[in-house]
Amino acid sequence: MRILHVSDCYLPRLGGIEVQVADLVRAQREAGHLVEVATATPGAAIPGVHRVVARLPFDLPVHPRGTGHLIRLMTSRRPDVVHVHTGAVSPFAWMGVRAAVRSGLPVVVTVHSMWDPVTRGVYRALQATFDWRRWGLVATAVSEAAARPIRAVTGPRVPVRVVSNGLDVSGWRPTEAQDEAQDEAPHDGAPPEAVHGDAVHGNAVHVVAVGRLAPRKQPLRLLKLLEAVRTRVPGQIALRATIVGDGPARGRMERYLKARRLDWVSLPGRFSREQIKELLASADVFVAPAPRESFGLAALEARAAGVPVVARAQSGVADFVGSGKEGLLGRTFDELAAAVARLAGDAELRRSIAAHNRETEPVKCSWAAVLEGFGHCYELARA
């Protein structure tokens, strides 16, 4: 099948959508499909990647005449299906939708974000202006939580399927040596004097979070959550926390840590995938506290690595983490703090969840399942 992906953002940018689309392209090519990408992201030439770029401030991934460029591209390439990837509001991606419709090509639209009330209002206004529900689209969301607000806007005219983000699960599974080290590590707490300072790196319970340090992810809320956990955990149990990532909120987080003297929490910056794998090998608990997380790829990586996950019950993480099985879920700040504190204080519960996560693969998130899911959507769009 000839597939054309359209996305505002693509490599060399490194974000959730960019990495996921690039991995999907690779998996589809390995499955024998002819796959190309159209993007408004500037960068070096990559075979099969068409960069529709305009000179705009801050390299904004949009083109004022993008629809015309994309129509010409689609007319010359004639893909069997156009697969468009959008965030909350993605102007270039929606130019791709319009171009495909005008070119008479089947369209699948994947929404990678959680639509909030403002976003839903925007799409209702666009419906009133363009009547896009009549364009014959097939939509997909990355989780049931993300699908619900989309269905509330699209109604019955636009089918909305759930196709998970994909992950090479085997690549995140811990090695036998790491398994043995985790099983043998006591992590039952350290003397009270080890709670702060360098000594905390001994037998301390290690809490890990990974994500972009942006305001919408509520990173300061994460620091307050860790503070609340510390007050709930018995003093003889040492804690340390590592928050991986970078973004505009980093400065505020560093000032908060210094003001509150949270020297047991570290912000090492952005890590590569290999560095994250190494970090997860030493993690006891993974925290994904954002309430509007449409999927939670970092949480899936942690779950695949065998780490118990604590997340919001109303987020997309709930698609692959069941409370009491792969981790613990909470609907409120207090419930999340209680869940992390419970895992920190109960080594046996951590071990049992970790063993379950190591032995049980999240099948729906494998690339085989993702390719099958999109294959059904492509056929539905073509029909």
TrEMBL record:
UniProt-listed Gene3D superfamilies: Glycogen Phosphorylase B (3.40.50.2000)
All copies of domain Glycosyl transferase family, residue ranges: 207-358
SUPFAM superfamilies in UniProt: UDP-Glycosyltransferase/glycogen phosphorylase
Annotated CDD domains: GT4_PimA-like
Domain Glycosyltransferase subfamily 4-like N-terminal per the UniProt entry, residue ranges: 15-169
UniProt cross-references to InterPro entries, sorted A to Z: Glyco_trans_1 (IPR001296), Glyco_trans_4-like_N (IPR028098), Glycosyltransferase_grp1 (IPR050194)
Single GO MF annotation: glycosyltransferase activity
Region entry Disordered, spans: 170-197
Listed EC numbers: 2.4.-.-
Keyword entries, A-Z: Glycosyltransferase, Transferase
Record PANTHER family: SULFOQUINOVOSYL TRANSFERASE SQD2
Name the record gives this protein: Glycosyltransferase family 4 protein
